Amino acid sequence: MRIGVLTSGGDCPGLNAVIRSVVHRAVGDHGDEVVGFHDGWRGLLEGDHRPLDLDAVAHILAAGGTILGSSRVRPEQLRDGVERAREHLARLRLDAVIPIGGEGTLKAARLLSDAGLPVVGVPKTIDNDIAATDATFGFDTAVGVATEALDRLKTTAESHQRVLIVEVMGRHTGWIALHAGMAAGAHAIVVPERPFDVDELTAVVGKRFEAGKRFAIVVVAEGAKPREGSMPFETGGTDVYGHERFAGVARQLAVELERRLGKEARPVILGHVQRGGTPTAYDRVLATRFGRHAVEAAHRGEFGMMTALRGTEITLVPLAEAVARLKTVPDERYAESECVL
Ligand code: F6P
What we know:
By secondary structure, this protein is of the alpha/beta class. The protein has helices at residues 15-30, 41-46, 75-91, 103-114, 139-160, 175-184, 198-210, 249-261, 281-300, 319-322, 331-335, and strands spanning 2-7, 33-37, 49-52, 96-101, 120-123, 163-168, 188-190, 216-221, 265-269, 305-310, 313-318.
């Protein structure tokens, strides 16, 4: 069998572990040939690729980023590119393509699959917001990085008697904010699923200082917004791909809390550091299992599917289901954080 693999969308710790696993299973165990497309869908649309043998994936298990590169593609570019993708698959005599990516990539994978191309998707996102799988690799690493940062920020906040507003990733969902905030004992957690009321947030932080505490840590997901009319808020507009640009919620909240509380407040934006570097053991294991199961699905001819973790088992779910719904933080989980606004 000949298999193509690509990584698309924002990078994520564990991508290399999937690529390695695909090559090990396909080339090492089945005697297949594997090619890697460069820079995600761009590589497939332009036929830009290289062969991947066992040597090509040596020593990449623990490496961050992706050896294949990644890119974002506008949905219309891909819609127009279906026939080009079909031509390249035929020219390279590929029997299957395994795109590894998040929501946008899986939507694109479904588009190609609906057009009859042999696709098996592998989900990735540090945001952990794909509903069809219990977990995605990259999340555990991102939460670990954010937690370590929060632990460090506590000591400097206390020294200066400051309020630190720490912005973590999470475009539509607050999983990183919730888990890192809980792990580090944050005093308030703000997630996109629940527009926040700045009066409530001020009261929570204010009570801490009244009780004699010397600092406060507020964790906020980058996609969080205030309740309508709760405070002046500038949105960030959209980027060239039509994605919402982040508004700088931590910066705007810091200004507002400092004004209301009369305490020094500082924004800290963790940004892409949460996506960089070596994956945790958990993420390497999940990524490796996904890669192996994607190859097995291709060998069984189960196309139009995505690998998913359900409980402790890896299963396949239709790509249609995979892109249908985001996994948001439910109220009961948020309530468990013990720092409810
Ligand atoms: O979806 C993963 C993610 O890291 C989000 O948490 C974040 O909002 C987004 O990607 C950032 O994308 P970019 O790398 O294009 O700035």
